[in-house]
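Morning run. Coffee first, then this:
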Amino acid sequence: AGERIEELVSGGPQLGVVYCDLDYFRAVNNAYGHAEGDRAILHFADLLGTVAGERFLVAHPHGDEFVVALPGDREVVTEFLERLREFARANPFRTGEAVPREFAIEYTCGWVHTSKVALSMLSGDATERACQVQIEILAKQADKALSELKATGDRGRDAEFDPDVCYRHERTSDLDPETLRSFRAIERTLLIAAPRLGEESADRLRWLLVEAAGLVAPAGSE
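And here it is:
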């Protein structure tokens, strides 16, 4: 996926990143056992792989969560999400019990597109590390949109990352959106610089930035 970022920086296609989280997965494990839960995860992975084909990249970071990287414009992402929903409903999971049960895998997605967010990379910095960090940041943004959607109790839909919406609860003063976006850009730059500075130094710089700007509470604080 980092290579797709490198292509983008070199004038290639934009990139979308989708974060998928299976819904009610604990209930599947409780009702049918963890072995069936594993089969359900593999079933969803097959669905993703079929819809993604060879054009898109599918990853399974852990548990019941998946990430997809999709080169192309925003319509490529929305069309993929629509096809995936239709395919998942048309191909339900079938348990391995003596009397099999069938049900469609339910999931929620958050997604982000590089045409709508500023890349965090320093100008001209297309090193392997910078590209990898950029992918991590995009995945976190997509996951943020997913988390905001599920926090409302709304599941089974797709939500696009919007920094003005997804970070609204972090504001500690009446700041305009442009100021908040500027802070986020600086913060992401620190993430990219971390390997050069050392994690401790980079983290300290972030805290100093937060303290000086008075914009948001540092991660892990109340």
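Residues 169-173, 215-222 have pLDDT under 50 and may be disordered. Good start to the day.
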